[in-house]
Amino acid sequence: MATAPDHGPLPRMLLALTVVSGLVDAFSYLTMGHVFVANMTGNVVFFGFALAGVGGISVRSSLVAIAAFVAGAAIGGRAAREARPHRGLLVAAACSIQAVVFAVSAIIVTRTTMRSEGVTLALIALLAVAMGGQNAVVGRLGVPDLTTTVLTRTMTGLFAEPSPMAVRLRRLASVVALMIGAWAGGMLLHWVALSAPLWLAAFVVLATAVSALIRARQPDAASWR
């Protein structure tokens, strides 16, 4: 039987990014209309609703989110393929960029309170690009059952496939992490401020970047390169 590859601390880092996905989707869905910036499955469905003229969903918002996400995925995927760094350094670089995007987005929200459609569309584009890049990097890491955004396949495997307990726990942790992020985002929007979920997302990805950088420089890092 083949030995499972060593992913080192990557699963824990990807769970943190799953929390971030819940945070930013809570912000986008609850403050910018029915639009996701991380979950593109939902956006494709919403776009169909928008074309049908039901649900009060904006065609423009859905299109911007999908297009920006695809652009972010293309950029992130190409950068990851060409650089081919240690996986920890790849996580550190991607999370550092995300931290900047989330912080800039939070500042825009604070200063504008999203009073115009142009500001809203710009925020959707910024966040969707960041999440598209995250998805491309996560795919490049090759850690099973931790996609950080889409959980349909994860939940199906959790209940439909016979698997070792470690695999089941990893899948369950992924589901719980996304739910926690969404819950935290909703609570912060309700009790703190519009920009609060984005600031927390920026903090989480920055902490993940620092952790990934430190772990990638330790002697045992070669085992999960």
Structure overview:
With 225 residues, the protein is mainly α. The protein has one domain (10-218): Growth Hormone, Chain: A. It has 8 helices and no strands. Helix 3 packs parallel to helix 5.
Describe the secondary-structure layout.
Blueprint: H1 10-31, H2 40-52, H3 59-83, H4 87-112, H5 117-141, H6 152-160, H7 165-191, H8 196-216
Helix pairs in contact: 1-5, 1-7, 1-8, 2-3, 3-5, 4-5, 4-8, 6-7
User: Which stretches of 5+ consecutive residues score pLDDT under 50?
Assistant: none
Gross morphology? globular
The structural class is mainly alpha
Count the beta strands: 0
Provide the β-strand percentage band: under 5%
Supply the CATH architecture: Up-down Bundle
The tally of helices reads: 8
**CATH fold-level topology:** Growth Hormone, Chain: A
CATH class: Mainly Alpha
**Gap between N and C termini, in Å?**
22 Å
Count up the domains.
1
Rg value? 17 Å
The H/E string reads HHHHHHHH
Mean pLDDT: 92
The helix content is over 70%
Largest sheet: none
Compact description:
Helix content is 75%, strand content 0%.
Question: What keyword list fits this structure?
Answer:
mainly alpha; about 0% strand; about 220 residues
